[in-house]
Amino acid sequence: MKKVWFLLASMIVVLALTACQEKPKPDDRLQAYTDLWNKQEFEKMYDTYLTSSTTDTYKKEDFVKRYKDLYKDLEVDNLKVTYKKPKEEQEFKDKEEVKLPITIQMKTLAGEIKYEKEVTLTKEKREDKENWYIQWDTTFILPNLEEGDKVRIGSTPAKRGEIFDRNGKPLAINGQAYEIGVVPQDFNEKDLDKLSKLLETTPEYIQEQMGQSWVKPSHLVPLKKYPLTQKDKVEELVKIGGVLSPKTEAREYPYAEATAHLVGHLGNMTAEKYKKLKDKGYSKEDRVGIRGLEQLFEEKLRGQSGKSIYIEKEDGEIETITEIPVKDGEDITLTIDAEMQKTLYQQMKTEAGTATAIHPETGEVLSLLSTPSYDPNEFVLGISSSRYKELEEDPKKPLLNRFSLAYSPGSTMKGITSAVALNNGLDPNKTFSIPDKQWQKDSSWGDYKVTRVFTNDSSVDLESALKFSDNIYFAQVGLDIGAENFVNGLKKFGFGEEIPFTYPITASQVSNDGKISSEIQLADSAFGQGEILMSVLHLANSYAGIINDGTMMKPILLDSEKSGEWKTDLLSKEHADLLKTNFRKVVTEGIAGKAAVEGRAIAGKTGTAEIKSEQGTTGTENGSFVSYDQNNPNMVLAILLEDVEDRGGSTHTVEVTKRFYESWE
After folding, report:
1. Catalytic-role residue among 370, 408, 411, 508
2. Given strand 97-108, what is the order of strands in its sheet?
3. What is the pLDDT of residues 166-223, one digit of tens each?
4. Is 411 among the catalytic positions?
């Protein structure tokens, strides 16, 4: 038994010695080298695998640094270096030099690079041991890269897409701005304080800019950019000696405050945004959409910058390695009428409020306005901290986008309640006996009573209730309908669901939990109080559905969107015609008489929403008016103004609406 074990042990030793004596093969060496390359272990590649002539020519620190720096600059990713052994084993015996093919593949900031390389391996003896070593040169790094060549990265910025209104009017364009600068040799230091105050900066900042290493006495030193809308400010600045205002490229918003909340603006890349966007090809220096459509359609508008990696030869010849062609951003055309928006803004600019105009037959949104507003051109060029603080602390909240919010509709709800009631069997000629200003169903309501503003009629039908906005009538109608039918009727109008609109708009609600849980809540909700909330867009579109004989179109904002139905069979044509007649009488015979405009047949419904914690207390009021011209019913306009309690309530909104119709042709 011992003899057998001895023989086995002897055989293992012989096999081991034989293995140790096996000569290294060049393909194994190349495979090991490519493994290190894939791991980017450049130090080991240099120390163990390069020929003596290579290490004599290239220093280790240069070899390693060149690889690392270049791979970093080119943003190399997914590096894959492969050597594919042939199916039939090659015979390397008695050869001193062999050539073997490898494939180098990598992703870079300018696309994929893939090239073939024939590697020369030379047999060398070091410390009494023979092995194969790689004859390296710069073409290993990039194809055709020779000593003395320079690797360059080219970038061609994409032209950002522009935004236009339905008539081709520019809302956001690649336009111009004034660049305020100072020429040192022509500038008097005595004007330093004056200039710094006008620029809303410090004298130290101006001196710091003028003291930069590149500045020469005759050079223009840029200090601040101003939008073309601030021409008066620029003219004041250039009165100072040595101050110039050449024009420079900049994103421009020609309608400024009128379209600020809708269009948004560009802004600097923040660290948080860069973290989210870096994988989409953004750099830290890029500007991105902030707010509005600039943000909503950032990906579509921005396009893709062209990038290239190329070699610049010593004689100036250029050889492109890889490139991504520039792709300009897409233009966007809206259904918005910019001149209408501007006219509305002129009437509302001092108000805290919002307005929407919509075409009842197509669903095209013609206006989306929030006031007060701000100039987006200030933001895109770098708003001062003092100016931003001023906007942020303004009690009217000009930075707030009101058209995206939901408000209590007040009595404008009565038009919708009328449609729901008619669908549930309300006889429009039925009269309700309402002798007093206040009413409650019975003692179970405790101290709570419904109050009406006008007591013109004691025998009230639907026409009278709409003309004089009778809360008690609609409270009783709501109770007659019943909570379940009322809620179901509102759901037919789109309450409780997302509005199918390009721009995010808060969904309208029946109540906080979507239910009507008491008679008092039902009565309040029927005349537009309770917990009912609607966006001004949904309010306008709901009336558009009535005016369009019971079909509410899907609201559209983009010219490329197809018109389509959102809600159908909201009411019969007979009932729609009845309500349209009554809406006209609200102006000709009712409480909205101040909306009358010569040459137009204005019709609509007013609404005052009381914002207070409980009955009997004093709060604020929002005034609304939904209207359209029956002589030209191609637009339903809804305007809501905040804090109208001391300005005539909804009558103030009616007056603002009238001024718009008088201004708009």
Report:
1. 411
2. 77-82, 97-108, 111-126, 129-135
3. 999 999 999 999 999 999 999 999 999 999 999 989 999 999 999 999 999 999 999 9
4. yes
